[in-house]
Amino acid sequence: MNKRLAIYVIYDKDGIIDDYIPYFLNALSDFVSHMVIVCNGKVNGTGMEKLKTFTSDVFVRQNIGFDAGAIKDVLLNLFGWEKVMEYDELLICNDTFYGPIFPLSELFNDMSKKDVDFWGITQRKDYTDGPYISVPKYLQSYFINVNSRLLKSDDFHAFWINLALPESYGITIINYEIAFSQLFSEKGYAYTSYISENCNHNYTYLDPYNLIIKYRCPIIKRKSLAYENEDELSYMGGENKNRLMELLEDNKLYDTSLIWDNLLRVRNIRDIKNTLHLDYVFPTLALNSPEIEIKPKTALVILHLHYHQMTDECLSYLNNVPAAVDIVVTTSAMDVYTKAKEFLSNKPNSRVRLVDNRGRDVSALLVACNDLLQDYEYVCFTHDKDTNLVASKRSAESFRHILLENTLASETYIHNVIAKFEKNPKLGFLNIPSPYHRPYFGTLGNEWTNNFDSVKMLMKKIDVDSPVSVDKHPFCLGTAFWCRSSAMKPLFYYNWTLSDFPPEPLPANGTINHAIERILSYVAQSQGYYSGHMMSDTYAAIRSVDLEKIIIKLTKSIEYKDFNAYQLLFKEDNFANNGNLLDFCNKYDALYIYGTGFYGAFTANLLIAARQEFYGFIVSDGMTKYESYLGYPVFYLSEIDFTAESVGVVIAVASKSHHEVTSILSKAGAKNIL
Question: Which domains does the chain have, with CATH numbers?
Fold first, then answer.
């Protein structure tokens, strides 16, 4: 067998080596003569011990130049070119995938028969991205094997010596990943991929399900499990993503706990939910898993009631609770307490608790029922909803329907929810879907702003560390859910008192109540559980039609329609309706775009689609300047007279450069800048 050297690149911002890495390295060990592991950034002590079981050559370096910088450093400095030349083949791979799903012998045996100079697992076909980007086909760099003829060549040595360390992920793709295949192909070196079909789109993250089913692809890219990419809808629906984990588990292809342990630590739960389509629709009449029995004292339903006029309607939902499930009703109103006691008198596994209204439904759960939360494996919490404002009555009724229908729709529905938890040990939390009718439509978008400070304080209070980001809209709206109690441990086990909660009247935003409502999925994530949304089949049918109506009306409201991809549609909607791009452009007779990169081209296409005229592009003096770009002239900054009030400039560069470019334009005399 040829002597094969492997270079494995790792990056983890916390320096943690999750167990999916040793699992892969152990499988890889049978196919390499020696292994070099290089870590960008840092590695903790436990992680270093794991890596040292595979090789004595473990290097830790500054995270400079991404994968390309790490590999260059190993080849030319850390391990050294002379040592590399002692081997017949070089395998370059990284930690951005899980596997192997199938035995690596299938991969290596098949590729050993190919008469090529280098090969990978997948490649992308040459493609164009609009009128301004053309990309040649290339092997994806997460797994590339270099055979002897290329490895021993001066061309290969020169490539690494001359490779400039990229400063951004995008430049890494262009100057390393794409250039690797393109340059060596032009020099006469042959290459191929294990997955024979040239994928015009990046199916490693768009459709990993079919890569496994059709092609026995041995890996799953992490990005395919938690990568919210708007442009995905331009190519396909997500019809296979929610079947991916079940495929692995049902066929015993891979231990999915290795995936969940890493994924839940490093990615935002909303990205995971949206990528894997973790919205569960449960039947209200048909049992999904009749073989699963709900055992007594394992599940608890807590219903909080506040509004007198809604008592009968809300209590009627408790008739749907299976006999083996215990019930608690909480209320601060004596008449509601009396009515609930009478209603539950024939249910021996139920009780009613009179509570203080301070903290509303949240304190009813965490203070009044704190002694019960640790005694049950599964907990359901839901509550009523109403208002004394006549104009808002109908909106409150719709919200109340969402709260109760999607937690307690029927006895069968409740059985199906519990069965889902029973069959998925990593599932920790299921929330109702967010309402979308007025006045709640805005909550479907970014709604962190008014509550983020209280969220941060709460997470510190209960000692939860999770990748919550201010730019994410809330996973949860409305404290109505089913959960695994162990997933809520930091919240349920905390010694809450009424003094933790604000007195009435409760402000509209920014209280601990609002914070608790928004962090539930992140608490579950911190304990190693994933979350999703749950809906009854009857509600899901209503919701799907309503959301389709919303989409149709929104697309009709867009002023110009020359788009061919969802990504462009979303950006056009943002620019046209929120960014005031067209309003700005219409004010100036002499309009320019600063920037001739991706954002410059993107902005130009928006203006062209809107039939908005502009003079051309601007770049700073000394920068690379084309004579024309997209058929428009390109000017140096010094060539433009900014003194006229009729001159306007749209800055079209990455957001991190906005301040710098604005300063440059202002110093040049530009007055009208967007």
Answer: 4-220 (3.90.550), 280-547 (3.90.550.10), 566-667 (3.40.50.20)
